[in-house]
């Protein structure tokens, strides 16, 4: 509803420092933090909740990278600003509930639940769940970071940026390239002949 504010948001998205963020998650968080009060308050609140959700963030990265997620895996937990998975409550009930659904539909050996590693100490699962896991009919993954979860959900490495950039075929590499493409396209809406500078797109 506010074109000027929207253009301002796009310009922030294209700043070199933003686009050189360590990973797509950090980039999204920086964009979120840069939004002005008022104009994008509803959007900011929804995006904040989405980024913090352990289940929604993988879907966002999947959409950006166009790498599909395995549909037989449930995810529980939340993510902090550094990509660390935070503990949750009711871990046993969540695992057992998903197990019951999978068993009713037929166990395939590929189904399972991703939980925070910090919740392993809280596990007191039913005997039928423990037996299914021990026989390889059902899976339970305990993770510390969103990157571990991304690889489990996609079968594709999340990506390592130790050299300052992600492998182009990694989930983060593909997502970052897509974010850059979107930012570059949106900047053209500023009306300055549809041109952007090299610094804005790298």
Characterise the protein shown here.
There is one protein chain. This protein has helices at residues 3-14, 16-19, 24-34, 41-52, 56-65, 91-105, 127-134, 146-154, 171-187, 198-201; strands at 73-75, 78-79, 85-86, 112-116, 139-143. By secondary structure, the chain is mostly helical. It has a three-stranded parallel β-sheet, sandwiched between helices. Helix 3 packs antiparallel against helix 4 and helix 5 crosses helix 9. The longest helix is centred in the C-terminal third of the chain and has 17 residues, at 171-187. Mean pLDDT is 74; it is low at 1-22, 34-44 and 193-202.
Q: How would you sum up the major sheet?
A: 3 strands, parallel
Distance between the termini: 29 Å
Identify the overall geometry.
elongated
- Average residue-wise pLDDT: 74
List the helices and strands and how they pair.
Blueprint: H1 3-14, H2 16-19, H3 24-34, H4 41-52, H5 56-65, E1 73-75, E2 78-79, E3 85-86, H6 91-105, E4 112-116, H7 127-134, E5 139-143, H8 146-154, H9 171-187, H10 198-201
Parallel strand pairs: 1-4, 4-5
Antiparallel strand pairs: 2-3
Helix pairs in contact: 1-9, 3-4, 5-9
């Amino acid at each position: 509803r506010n074109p000027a504010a929207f253009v301002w948001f796009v310009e922030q998205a294209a700043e070199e420092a933003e686009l050189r963020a360590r990973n797509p998650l950090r980039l999204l968080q920086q964009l979120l933090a840069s939004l002005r009060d008022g104009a994008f308050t509803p959007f900011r609140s929804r995006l904040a909740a989405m980024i913090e959700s352990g289940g929604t963030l993988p879907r966002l990265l999947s959409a950006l990278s166009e790498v599909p997620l395995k549909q037989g895996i449930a995810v529980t937990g939340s993510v902090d600003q550094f990509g660390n998975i935070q503990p949750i409550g009711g871990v046993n009930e969540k695992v057992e509930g998903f197990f019951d659904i999978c068993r009713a539909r037929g166990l395939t050996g590929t189904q399972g639940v991703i939980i925070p590693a910090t919740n392993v100490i809280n596990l007191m699962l039913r005997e039928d769940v423990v037996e299914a896991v021990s026989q390889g009919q059902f899976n339970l993954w305990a993770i510390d970071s969103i990157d571990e979860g991304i690889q489990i959900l996609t079968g594709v490495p999340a990506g390592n940026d130790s050299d300052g950039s992600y492998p182009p075929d990694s989930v983060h590499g593909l997502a970052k390239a897509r974010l850059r493409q979107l930012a570059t396209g949106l900047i053209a809406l500023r009306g300055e002949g549809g041109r952007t500078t090299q610094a804005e797109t790298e």
